[in-house]
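Encode chain A's predicted structure.
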Amino acid sequence: MSDAIKNIIAELDRLYDDASYSAQSYFEAAKSAALWGKTFILFPALVSSLSSFVIALGWSKSWGTLGAIAGAVAATAAFLGSDKKANSHLNSARNFTDIRHAARLEMSLAQGSTNVGQLEEKLRALRAEYSAVNSGIEPISNRFFRKAQKRIDGGVLSYEEASN
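Encoded structure for chain A:
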């Protein structure tokens, strides 16, 4: 195997790692956004229900103000689509996962290849795709990267290693 092909395989491996960490980070961000989105609907709806219940039991009608505000918050969150951010992060994670799988495939195919030009072209195309996905997404907090790093270190991607 030529040095050029070894270098391309090494760069594909870096791309695989980059895409793995990006995908897992966005999966972690999607889980968090989904939880917060549901909380912004569920908690105010429960407060509104509780307020109505205590008024029905004969408590002060001033609980109605709290119930109305909580109901408005729940309705607004539902109307605005509290899950939009989670879906956006999930789509980003899926795009990075696709790139990760493509990089792994190209690494495998490169092992027996002698066509440096074709391999370099594919590598450049995958890097361009990674850059395009990365430039079109909303940045996320570093805490999601740290969570992803822990999960990856814990073996969340080990199914791929076991299949090789």
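The chain has a mean pLDDT of 89.
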